[in-house]
Amino acid sequence: MATDKKIWGVPVAVSLAGRTNWPNEVKTMAVKKVLDDGARLGDLALEIGAHENLIRKWCNQERRARGESVSAQEPFASVTIASESIATPTSPQMCKLHVGDATLEFPINAPAESLQALVYALRCSL
User: Fold this and answer.
1) What is the CATH number of domain 3-65?
2) Quick one: pLDDT at residue 85?
3) Can you give the pLDDT at residue 5?
4) What is the pLDDT of residue 32?
5) Per-residue confidence (pLDDT) for residue 91, from 0 to 100
6) Half-sphere CA count of 83, side-chain side, radius 13 A
7) Fewest C-beta in 10 Å: which of 18, 28, 44, 51?
8) CA–CA distance, 113 with 24 (Å, rounded to integer)
9) Sequential DSSP letters for 90-114
10) Are 40 and 30 in contact (CB under 8 A)?
11) What does the pLDDT read at residue 105?
């Protein structure tokens, strides 16, 4: 026997196996919160108990329906560095980069791929 939970007042069926059957009404509201209201995917995923990638999929479907281009990769985010954002090395081997309230600390000789991954992780968490 399936159970129901309510998300934003909408009944959502959950199978005995734990699979959620997401009603179109919830999908539509989630997409609106992300695309139109600027909600963060991670926050919304936690709020409704869905995986971030599932909500991203719903958003991409809506973007396509709106005629927007949806690429398979995340778009490049430009970075502007102010002089006060760059810290002096904390030691001969380490450096810190301050981005808003966040600080990345990394080895000075870190490979570019590792720094890209760090910046991407930071961007996703903001």
Assistant:
1) 1.10.10
2) 46
3) 87
4) 94
5) 65
6) 0
7) 18
8) 39
9) SSSSEEEEEETTEEEEEETT--HHH
10) no
11) 77
Task: Write out the H or E segment, with its range, that includes residue 34.
Answer: none
CA distance 30 to 40: 10
Residue spans of the chain under pLDDT 50 = 84-87
The helix (H) or strand (E) run that includes residue 67 is none
CA-wise closest residue to 73 among 92, 90, 86, 60 = 60
Residue 17 DSSP label: T
Tokens of 114: 């590792």
Burial zone of 56 (CB within 10 Å; 0-12 exposed, 13-18 middle, 19+ buried): middle
Q: What is the pLDDT, as a whole number, of residue 88?
A: 54
- Residues 6 or more apart whose CB falls under 8 angstroms from that of 33 comprise 39, 44
pLDDT value, residue 31: 94
Domain extents for the chain?
A: 3-65, 83-125
